[in-house]
Amino acid sequence: MIRNDIKALAAYHVQDATGLIKLDAMENPYPLPDALRREWAGIIGSLNINRYPDPDMRELRRAIAERDGLNADQVLLGNGSDEIIQMLLIAADHGPCVVPRPTFVMYGMISRWLKRPVAAVPLDGDFSLNAEAFLRVCAREKAGIAFLACPNNPTGNMWPRDTIRHIADNFRGLLVIDEAYRPFADETHVDMIAPHVIVLRTYSKLGLAGLRLGYALGHPDTIGEINKVRLPYNISSAGQASAAFFVEHFGIFEEQAEKIRHERDRLATALAAMEAVETYPSQANFLLLRVPDADAVFGSLMQRGVLVKNLHPEGGLLENCLRVTIGLPEENDRFLNALKEALA
Ligand SMILES: Cc1ncc(COP(=O)(O)O)c(C=O)c1O
Fold first, then answer.
1. Ligand 1: distance of its center to the CA of 267 in Å?
2. Is the pLDDT of residue 197 over 90?
């Protein structure tokens, strides 16, 4: 009845965060300002929810495209960028999906659902990416698609532009540059868009995780082809109206992202002063740390009311690693104190 390879999979696990300071999922900790929330509620209240949503979303796509100096036909919208990853893996040419290891788990997971083989190229010990090694695996495997998260999750680092440019210039399949953490990073790769190069973005990390809105930016012809595997009405009326409203108030989210970047640097400095902790450079809204015993530290942080992500079970380069999302200043202080106690 159900495919054996699906039966063998573990479902995506989300840790229960009830009563805990939630620093595990890269959410923006700042709530919507009250005035904005009221205005938004009015818009949602006036929707004709008995009708199907706009299937084409041209106006919303235009507003999103404009922010990057692009046109509406260069934007594809998804129910979170996860849905776009799925569309890309459905539409790309046959051939394995090549990813660095470690990276965002959904690239591999969705590939397996779709019976697309996955080839992983290990990062170096400092999480740097060897472009030649990556291209060698792509050529050897006859890859159909490759994903590079820039900055990478869960490591937080940004690979040099030259590395990405070299891969973009020499890869023959579809290259997806995933900029989920763009609001916290110094640069974008939008200028590398080409018929075989797509840039992926999301509003999830910016303060709208509950909205589930992601988008791909690309060449109009490629976007047009991928659009053929988009489910009709994949963005609800509420999602479309909310996104159109929030795009107009983008400045608020950008200000919050700036505060988060500032907090990230403060937290990184405080962690660098802790002898038992190794912290890695990050251009995202989280930090990757290595501690002497990640399982034990994760457990003691939980007991002290702080939930982070324990990456130790993934092994390899992530042995004894924890990933902490940047929270409100007081939440970050609670985390720092709890970590000091856990390590004492
Ligand atoms: C690199 C990367 N891409 C995509 C996503 C998925 O984001 P969304 O919430 O838009 O599905 C994440 C979420 O953690 C991520 O880390």
1. 23
2. yes
- Predicted local distance difference test score (pLDDT) of residue 296: 98
pLDDT at 276: 96
Does residue 10 have a pLDDT over 90? no
Model confidence pLDDT, tens digit, residues 106-134: 999 999 999 999 999 999 999 999 999 99
Ligand 1 atom with least separation from CA of 214: 10
Average pLDDT over residues 314-327: 98
Query: Would you say residue 12 has pLDDT above 90?
Result: no
- Assign residue 55 a region (left: φ > 0; alpha: ψ between -120 and 50; beta: otherwise): alpha
| Helical pair 250-272 and 237-248, crossing angle rounded to 10 deg | 80
pLDDT at 15: 86
Instruction: Pick the closest to residue 239 from 59, 79, 81 (CA basis).
Output: 79
Q: How far is the CA of 344 from the centre of ligand 1 (A)?
A: 34
Distance 202 CA to ligand 1 centre (A): 7
What is each CA distance from 286 to 18, 208, 262, 263, 314, in whole angstroms?
21, 17, 12, 10, 18
Chain-centroid distance of CA 259 in Å reads 19
Q: ∠ CA 325-326-327 to the nearest 5 degrees?
A: 110
Asked if residue 178 has its Cβ within 6 Å of ligand 1, the reply is yes
CB of 214 sitting under 6 A from ligand 1: yes
> How many angstroms does the Cα of residue 287 sit away from the middle of ligand 1?
16
Query: Which secondary-structure segment (H or E) carries 262?
Result: helix 250-272
What distance separates the 2 farthest-apart alpha carbons in the chain? 60
CA of 209, closest atom in ligand 1 = 9
Ligand 1 within 6 A of CB of 207? no
When mean pLDDT is compared across 15-19, 40-44, 51-55, the lowest value belongs to 15-19
The finding on whether 282 has its CB within 6 A of some atom of ligand 1 is: no
